[in-house]
Amino acid sequence: MRKSFPLAVEGLKPPRVVEAIKNEFRRYVKRERKKKLPEGVDFWDFDCRAGKDEGSADGVHLEEISAAVDKASSEGWESVFIEIVAKEGYRTRKPKAPHEPEETPPE
């Protein structure tokens, strides 16, 4: 999804416009996650960008898009650009903590 959303819509209050934008990208993510995974893929991951326009959009985590829309609304932007691209995700193991000496059980 690559779209520029207007933040000032005639006949709607700004908080309702912000909620409508958030609802639209949540529905998109939900729809993408329901798609069948290719063989060997663990999950759907997303590359996201948000900003005033396509040229000034910065990379953000999927969980930070709501905050980016709120920021755009509070700063009085005319519109906000959101790009969400689904990609294949592969799980990796967490690195183990450095070896710690084992505690001996009390006798």
The description of the largest β-sheet is: 4 strands, antiparallel
How are the strands ordered across the major sheet? 1-4-2-3
Helix content: 25-40%
Which runs of at least 5 residues are low in confidence (pLDDT < 50)? none
**How far from one another are the termini?**
62 Å
Report the sheet-strand fraction: 25-35%
Please count the helical segments: 2
Summarize the helix and strand pattern as letters. Answer: EHEEHE
Globally, the shape reads elongated
Overall pLDDT level: 92
How many domain modules? 1
Oligomer: single chain
**Overall radius of gyration:** 20 Å
Structural class: alpha+beta
Query: How many individual β-strands?
Result: 4
Description:
The chain has one domain. The protein has 107 residues and is of the alpha+beta class. The longest helix has 21 residues, at 14-34. The mean pLDDT is 92. The protein has a four-stranded antiparallel sheet with strand order 1-4-2-3. Helix 1 runs antiparallel to helix 2. The protein has helices at 14-34, 65-74, and strands spanning 2-6, 43-51, 58-60, 79-89. Strand 2 (43-51) and strand 3 form a beta hairpin. The protein contains two helices and four strands, in the order E-H-E-E-H-E. The termini are far apart. It is elongated and about 75 Å long.
